[in-house]
Design goal:
There is one protein chain. This protein has about 230 residues and is of the alpha/beta class. The chain is built from seven helices and five strands; from the N terminus they run H-H-E-H-E-H-E-H-H-E-E-H. Helix 1 crosses helix 2. The radius of gyration is 18 Å and the shape is globular. Bound molecules: 3-methylbut-3-enyl trihydrogen diphosphate and magnesium ion. 3-methylbut-3-enyl trihydrogen diphosphate binds next to helix 1 and strand 1.
Amino acid sequence: MDGNGRWAKQRGLPRAEGHRIGMESVRAMVRSCSELGVEYLTLYAFSSENWKRPRTEVAALMYLLEFFLKQEIPELNSNNVRLAVIGRTHDLPASAQKQLNKSIETLSKNTGMTLVLALSYGGRAEIVDAMRGIAREVKAGHLEIADIDEVVIARNLYTGSIPDPDLLIRTSGEMRISNFLLWQISYAEMYVTEVLWPDFRKPELLKALEDYSQRSRRFGLVNPPKAK
Ligand code: IPE
Ligand code: MG
């Protein structure tokens, strides 16, 4: 989700206002994706690098996070949405962590779309944490070095039980990954749009899905593998 700051600047508004309207896009996206039958929606809400932004902006983002978690639970629940979180969430303010755990618990029995929030998330940090987990397993004698394979690594990532994304959407025209799901996006289809996140609503999502539906995914093979 990129471009909140530019959206605000274009209108002579404070950056926090861009984040506030960006949250409306989050709300719209969660609703549309769950209606459309998307199984997992992962939102890059706050990166490990975002901590270095001005304190006031970080505070505004944390406030919006808690506000969203509190306010959206009834609607998420009525849409049968589950909630998961990836990232170094122990770095978040205690009140946000508490609200997160409460929301995850409240929605845990749901069986529809899983909304995954990437918070204090960095792809490299995730790989570091996975390597530490694997090293601990080896040291404890539960795992042989020869048995470390792609499955073991994937299982040790924050996304352990979450499938790899099929489609990666980036708003605001930036042609880079910015430390997002580095391992998991190996074969994800990418869609970059100039539209700024606060303007990214259902019609834009449908454009992205339409574009995605025209892709031929071969996964390194000559022909696309047969659907399971
Ligand atoms: C992305 O918008 C939102 C978050 C970091 C949560 P930006 O704040 O990065 O917006 P730009 O890139 O300054 O326009
Ligand atoms: Mg940005």
